[in-house]
Design a protein that fits this description.
Largest sheet: 8 strands, parallel
CATH topology of the largest domain: Alpha/beta knot
Oligomer: single chain
Helix content: 25-40%
Strand content: 25-35%
Radius of gyration: 20 Å
Order of helices and strands: EEHEEEEHEHEEHEEEHEH
CATH superfamily of the largest domain: SPOUT methyltransferase, trefoil knot domain
Structural class: alpha/beta
Length: about 240
Amino acid sequence: MRTSRVYIAGKLNVGDTVLLDAETAHYLANVLRLKKGDKVILFNGEAGDVQGTIESITKKELRVRLDTLVAEPRASSIHIHLGLVMSKGDRMDYGIQKSVELGVSEISPLFSDFCEVRFKEPTRRDNKLRHWRRVATAACEQCGAHSPPLIHEPTQLESFIETNSNACRLLFDARADMSLSAIAEAEDFQLLVGPEGGFSEKELALAKSQGYKSVHLGSRILRTETAPVAALAILQSKFGEW
């Protein structure tokens, strides 16, 4: 049976006993049906993977004794900040989940001229942001990553484009002349993926003025949730950990 793996933000020192938060305790005890004496792996980017034993479970709390370090912390060898224009339904969840599995470092959800998503109330935006961060954490737990990427608050495309950065800045456009596979080696990337309707001419001009290079991902037009998966796979294969 596979040992459950759970992200914990606090310190994880072998020999200590940690009290898990109510949400995590509920997940382990009531969803996974773990019991006293069962093994669990707690992890974060500072400690790596630490295997522990459940010492006690009550209706309100769960305590884990940290027994042994089983994996040192590791991070991707390239830094990738993904600017992803928001899409409806579970497409945004898919884009975030798979980007985490492929080693993204930061994700900025974006509004654009052709974006389908609008938040009429701040509470809906905040709820979505919390949900996306949970999606990212769950993806880390599944794939073996040690640090969930930063999921920034939704912002306008123009603000993202105009942020100062020394990264290699790439915008995905099916009409571009250059393939992503042809770009020069770098350690820091800033990617821009648009909505199903693509970018407006104004947005393309602004991005170009801020140093973005337009690149394509082959002859096929990829969906907005598929494009970051393909792009990250190419970058990891060329310059990263693959």
